[in-house]
Amino acid sequence: MTNSPPPDPRSSRTPLGFDEFLAVVLALAALGGILFWSLSRSGRGFQIPNILPLVTAPEARSPVAVSPQPQASPEPRAELAPIPSPAPEAIAPETPVTPRRQPVAPFPAIVPVPTRPTTPASPEPSPAPQVKFQDVPADYWAYPFITALAERGIVNGFPGGYFKPTDPVTRAEYAAILQEAFNQLPGVDNQTKYIDVPDTFWGVPAINRAIQTGFLRGYPDNTFQPQQEIPKAQVLVSLASGLNLAPPAIPEQVLKELYVDADQIPNYAREKIAAATTSGLVVNYPDAKQLNPNSNATRADVAAIVYQALVKAGRLDPIQSPYIAGVQPQ
């Protein structure tokens, strides 16, 4: 019996079959193709997609190659599937841009909001209460007449917030009040030169205006006497003349019935004062029946009488006062 040498352990390998060789070649080819495809992707870099299903084509003879590859296949496909989705997501944010601009639409609704504060401001247009004089309290008899004219710039006060209601009024000062009160009335285009009114006198425009509108006249000696304190009778005569007030049918009867001192009214003024009385221009303080025609008119007297003349002219609303004599305007 011949002793044969022991077999070489290296010769125990099974030669590679055709099927295994073909699987290896296909796997390498697939890897190369996927590597080339991955490198050709712009901005993606090198990525290994799911290639393991290609290896599962051969029979599961070699557990080394087949067993791990089916488990890795779900995860790479989950990474490749979202690749097309980033592009729609980048475009989708542009559609919400229009909703962000739509907040501009509510602005027209907000624009009226600033206008609402202007409605509370409308009560303020009456700057009337802002004209106050320290020597004309609210309970003063001529307070409503003085403040109403002061608010319209027809009469003015003195420095320090005083009106000086009991001070007398000169003829020049009275002409200035008439100019402010009846500046809308037409007048004749003429100028009268008075020997006592120089061209540089401050009251020249007002005096000329009072003459042109028929409220005042000079004296027969061609003087105007601008610094003379004007009596109450002249104030009433001037207003009745400038407004062309018609006298009553029986002037004397009106004067005697309404004034306890009617006999003191000058003859030149009787008819005009009767016309002023029946028109509601006469205001007497403290007694409505006491005219005091020859006393100098105070600033309060002039304010009250001029106010009543503006009521008669339809420029102002009537004021209820117990000191208005005669027939009050309707």
Automatic annotation (TrEMBL):
The chain crosses the membrane at residues 20-39. This is S-layer homology domain-containing protein. Residues 105-128 have a biased composition (Pro residues). The keyword Calcium does not apply. The keyword Membrane applies. Residues 129-192, 193-253, 256-320 form the SLH domain. The lineage of its organism: Bacteria, Bacillati, Cyanobacteriota, Cyanophyceae, Nostocales. Keywords: Membrane, Transmembrane, Transmembrane helix. It comes from Scytonema millei VB511283. Residues 88-104 have a biased composition (Low complexity).
